[in-house]
């Protein structure tokens, strides 16, 4: 696949969705940045691939908002990496974001229904 085709096939995330997906990935325990990106990619069947240029600024923003905390640890391959974990405030934010996301999905679904097929 050519780079231009790959770019055209990329799904643009709605504003705020990346933060929500990062917080969701952290629900399963502390993990480093590469692990977060990998988790999102695998859970989305390779549809969502988070670039480091988007991931790390988002993690820093979440940390400033006190939704995540980080600490340096050794990985399973003995490399030093920053591990992130969700805070109680982050869990509250995730719950709120998820509710809004569900409303958005329902609203977009209703708009996309063919005429005469809305409930």
How would you characterize the overall build of this protein?
The longest helix is centred in the last third of the chain and has 25 residues. The protein has 5 helices and 3 strands, in the order ααβααββα. It has a single domain, classed as Winged helix-like DNA-binding domain superfamily/Winged helix DNA-binding domain (Arc Repressor Mutant, subunit A, Orthogonal Bundle), CATH 1.10.10.10. With 119 residues, it is of the alpha+beta class. A 3-stranded antiparallel β-sheet has the order 1-3-2. Helix 2 packs across helix 5. The model has no long low-confidence stretch (mean pLDDT 88). The termini are far apart. Helix content is 55%, strand content 13%.
Number of domains: 1
The structure class reads alpha+beta
Main sheet attributes: strand count, strand direction, barrel closure: 3 strands, antiparallel
Superfamily at the CATH H level? Winged helix-like DNA-binding domain superfamily/Winged helix DNA-binding domain
Q: Would you report the number of β strands? A: 3
